[in-house]
Amino acid sequence: MTTVRLPKNATDCHCHVFGPVARFPYADDSGFKPAEAPKEALFALHDQMGIERCVIVQSGCHGFDNSVVVDAIAARPGRYLGVALAPADVTLADLRVLDTKGFRGLRFNYMSHLAHGADEAQLRALAPKLADLGWHLQIHMEDQLIEPMSPVLASLPVPVVIDHMGRIDASRGRNQPQFEALLRLLDHDYVWCKVSGSERASRQDPPYADATPFARELVEHFSDRVVWGTDWPHPNYRAAPPDDGDLFDLLPQIAPTADLMRALLVDNPARLYGFKENI
Question: What pTM value is reported for the model?
Answer without folding.
Answer: 0.96
